[in-house]
Input
Amino acid sequence: MFRPLASRPPVIAIFSCLFLFAWTAPRAAETPRPAPTLAEQPLADFKARRDQLQKQLTDGITLVPGRVEESLGVSEKFFQDENFFYLTGVEAPGAVLLLTPTPYQGARQILFLPRRNPQTERWTGPQPGPDREAEQSFGVDKALPTDALAQVLRELSATPYFKDGCKIHLVANPDEARDRAVQRLVERLRRDLPALPIQDARSAVSLMRMRKTPAEIALLKKAVRITGEAFQEIPKHLAAGCYEYELEAVVLATFYRNGAERPGYPCIVGGGRNATILHYNRNRDQILDGDLVVVDVGAQYRGYTADITRTFPANGQFTPRQRAIYEVALAAQEAAVKAFTPGKSRMSDLTLAARDAMRASPLRAGKQLTLDNFFIHGLGHFIGLNVHDVGDYAQPLPPGSVITIEPGIYIPEERIGIRIEDDYLVTETGLVKLSGDIPSRPEAIEQAMQRARRSPGRTRSAKD
Ligand SMILES: [Mn+2]
Output
């Protein structure tokens, strides 16, 4: 019979500990444990962002309010505030991050989480609570209950550090609160700490968000890949007589089937004249023979959103006029890409190049106007946690930023709306097209339509 381990002579226990150590140490060295991740990003990245922000905002404390869950999931799915997510990776509602230059109980990065509530959790599922486990999984110095925030702020403001010139840096707009939670927080700060001015610190975070980490770039690539899957499905379902919403359904199904959490913005599926309406997203109309169909969609994966547009001929073939104008839009995109000079080009430089290319075309529309007159929106924007991501357009496009280049030509009188939009990573040496696998040459789009038409597995709705 075995003796219980506890009653063994101590010398054997020590010996077996050493033996175990000697046995496991080399194995552990061979297979290092993977670095902890949060929302498919290294935990260390979130910490590095907090450190960086803390280094920049030294003259006071920084508060980052997360979103609250208002309706127990009835009116909408809960999604976290982008800046809060960027700095914490925390997807739970009702949380607040505090960064303090003078430590509170030894902590400089404190995450406030609502106390766990079994009643609410019956409705919306288990949430992390303010405990040691949260400190570890979110990599913060300390996790405290949100109802302790007021007390912590009072204690901090009584320390010698808080003398003249100290501020509260709020990563939210204090004057135009995003929601009730921010409004309540601002009211409380003004009441409890009237001596401390509240300053909007969002721009500091915006500049950080502009440059993506390798993990963020990988997530954007994944969002682009999922969006590409949706574009592969479009030719199988598009035909004269179908409805815009049928294509939207195909896009959404493909997004969800591939693990996207939602479209990063409302899907735009516009046929005919609707193709000339920039943010058309009613998607209710029938698509007619000879129409062009603009499909502008982007999957959101782990918070990061792609933004891609293709224009399809409903019947599988561009008319000569449609194709000629399509070629001009494509040439404008190519001109913008070619004009890019690393470290120098701003978005406005690329816009000029695209406009010049349109103006150089001999084609005319309306009252004999050059086609640049029918390009009525910006050439592109940053993408990231938001489809129109934050960043500074006045400076040269920095390496690590991800942008769209999306020339469009819209001539409502001719029922012609064309937009071609791709996503590009800005690097030290040039632009890398992330959506290059999604065909955009007109002949490639026609071929895809014809291939889909021939394939016996082609799906059409009951109306076929
Ligand atoms: Mn866009």
